[in-house]
Specification:
alpha+beta; five-stranded antiparallel beta sheet; four-stranded antiparallel beta sheet; elongated
Length: 234
């Protein structure tokens, strides 16, 4: 069950406050009147492929994956999000329905603002317009880099890159080595653009080589530099 509640801007983290700074006083009043928060349990769908884009989302806490169903019904994770990032607005600007789905890796809290308001504000607020140009430019660059990696690297290189990506994206736990995210083998395979069986096999190989330690969904990075070398070699 999704929980909805209205919050004030004083409860939002600093990065959203930086977004609010771009708004005029009138636009901030509108923001306060229409912003809402939704809580999602693990695996809950935030939006589905084919849905109409109606809101821009800020991930306040938790972890979210953006995925797309490809040929033969195979799901590909195209992006993972951490607090505090913006998502769910590209389709609106492109005047199309969502071509991806968004769901929670774990319990997540998402702040939402209607895209109709964003559109209205951008008509008269050049600073806000430039903000979205920069956001989309960064995402496009990341997407270009990831496309090359997933299509040109071999299985070992792709899995090493995925582990390093999670290491950089979500960090590690108190021991300084264990990834601060728990992924199913299916999700890790999807992120690495490989079959689940290949992901399991390559994880086992990495563990046997002493590069990582695997305990169910917990992965500890034991040889960071070696993984970096494997990723760079492709």
């Amino acid at each position: 069950m999704v929980k909805r509640e209205i919050i004030s801007t004083t409860e939002l983290p600093q990065r959203i406050k930086e977004f609010i700074v771009l708004l005029t006083s009138e636009q901030r009043d509108e923001f306060n009147a229409h912003v809402s928060v939704q809580r999602y349990a693990k695996n809950d769908l935030i939006y589905a492929e084919g849905d109409v884009s109606t809101h821009m989302c800020f991930l306040l806490s938790g972890k979210v994956k953006i995925s797309k169903v490809g040929i033969g019904g195979r799901t590909q994770i195209v992006r993972v999000l951490k607090p505090v990032e913006y998502f769910g607005y590209r389709a609106y600007f492109a005047q199309e329905n969502y071509v991806t789905s968004a769901s929670a890796f774990e319990t997540s809290v998402v702040c939402k603002i209607p895209m109709s308001l964003i559109d209205k504000w951008m008509q008269v607020n050049i600073r806000l317009s430039l903000f979205f140009v920069r956001q989309l430019s960064v995402y496009l660059g990341d997407s270009d880099q990831r496309t090359v990696s997933l299509t040109q690297k071999h299985i070992r290189g792709r899995l090493a890159e995925a582990l390093l990506f999670l290491y950089d994206r979500y960090g590690v736990e108190a021991d300084g080595q264990t990834l601060a995210i728990r992924l199913s083998r299916e999700d890790l395979a999807s992120l690495s653009n490989m079959t689940t069986s290949n992901a399991i096999r390559t994880l086992s190989t990495f563990a046997a080589e002493g590069l990582i330690t695997v305990d169910k969904r917990t992965i500890r990075i034991d040889q960071l530099q070696q993984l970096e070398k494997i990723s760079q070699m492709g």
